[in-house]
């Protein structure tokens, strides 16, 4: 088969979801993937393997810190890194094979190889030309580095190397206190490394609600992660058994250095578009390397679309998925829409951190009169029973209408709890709507209801 309605380039969450949706809507669809396995960064070297390692290392933490308190006594387990990696690979395999199955089920034609775009109707893979009415670029992103740092994915690693270590270093230095640095920092800390994070800014997790940032940093510090804030890493030098990290303190420009067995560079990600030969077609790319699209995700070339990490916006798998579905709907002649105000962000540490909508800082900046209803998990019975009463739910509402404008959670299952608020916000709900909805007891979700109550007359247990 060499003639299609749609060719999707890339099989990450944006690409594979777009391809399946296109096929479900009756379009003759192909998806091209250059890597051996389907699923892109998320399934192979990102979201999924990191969640496997976060889960495994959290079990170890529980065994070491909480088992005895519950009367579960005996020797705490040790880490068998080889076995842990086998478990992680098995989780990856189950997920990537799942996409192969879904492609077959939905009749998405899979093409293996690296694609280049010849024209808006022709895509080339291994010198073979495929004809198509539409092209969707979903080629994802890769870690960025910083000057004077030589990444070898062994001692100086990106998230890719950090997810497949040969051994657990005694000390790990992380450059960048973003999502990747803090999730992987948690994994290594629980597995026994002493972890130090060097961050350029005065805050962790850029863009997050500042109340949440402060609380989150306090918890991570209590868990043993050290922070050197307001400091810019300028270079690294690799020796036989250690890496020297040089950095400058922003305040006085003084030069410092530190050493560790492993250094993780987690300073952001950049779109992967070089191999597509976009410049030959004069497809517009922004100064930051993102493909420029219009409101319908179409590039400046008719029939060529782009979604996910290669275009503007947060580099999140679920944002890419939503864009993939919207483009498929547009190509099938339907309406496609993504509500960019309601894309949740989640950090899968323990406790989890989750946000949606406006932060307090944004509301202040926009001079919107708001009310903040906060409830601490300390008042939640279920959280007390599971050693997870640290953290809170904060709901921000319009002071006049009570409409929910944002929510910020740090606590157990925050990444799941946030979606109740996303749905409420999608329907334009008020905090009172949430507060009047019966929530099962004992669940963590009662903390969401209590925060909604706190936007009105007050929480019951707060
Ligand atoms: P990030 O952009 O979130 O954070 C990078 C941090 O590095 C910033 O705080 C920045 O100030 C700092 N930095 C940059 N250069 C530095 C230097 N020379 N010295 C010291 N600090 C420096 O990047 P991150 O964590 O790599 O994540 C990349 C993308 O992947 C993000 O868009 C993130 O949302 C996404 N992601 C999301 C996940 C999730 O949703 N759970 C998980 C993993 C990644």
Structure write-up:
Helix 3 packs parallel to helix 6 (179-190). Helices cover 31% and strands 25% of the residues. It starts with a strand and ends in an 8-residue tail after the last helix. Strands 1, 2, 3, 4, 5, 6 and 17 form a seven-stranded mixed sheet that branches. The chain has 13 helices and 22 strands. It is globular and about 65 Å long. 46% of the residues are buried. It is α/β, with parallel strands linked by helices and 462 residues long. The protein has three domains: 3-142 and 270-338, FAD/NAD(P)-binding domain, CATH 3.50.50; 156-267, 3-Layer(bba) Sandwich (FAD/NAD(P)-binding domain); 342-454, FAD/NAD-linked reductase, C-terminal dimerisation domain (Enolase-like, domain 1, 2-Layer Sandwich), CATH 3.30.390. The structure holds 1,4-dihydronicotinamide adenine dinucleotide. 1,4-dihydronicotinamide adenine dinucleotide is lined by residues 146, 175-181, 183, 198-201, 206, 232-233, 266-269, 314-316, 345-348. Residues 146, 175-181, 183, 198-201, 206, 232-233, 266-269, 314-316, 345-348 line the site of 1,4-dihydronicotinamide adenine dinucleotide.
Number of domains as seen in the coordinates: 3
Inertia-based shape: globular
**How does the major sheet shape up?**
7 strands, mixed
Total of DSSP H or I helical runs spanning 4+ residues: 13
CATH superfamily of the largest domain: FAD/NAD(P)-binding domain
- The helix content is 25-40%
Query: Which fold name fills CATH's third level, the topology of the largest domain?
Result: FAD/NAD(P)-binding domain
Each distinct ligand: 1,4-dihydronicotinamide adenine dinucleotide
Q: DSSP strand (E) fraction?
A: 15-25%
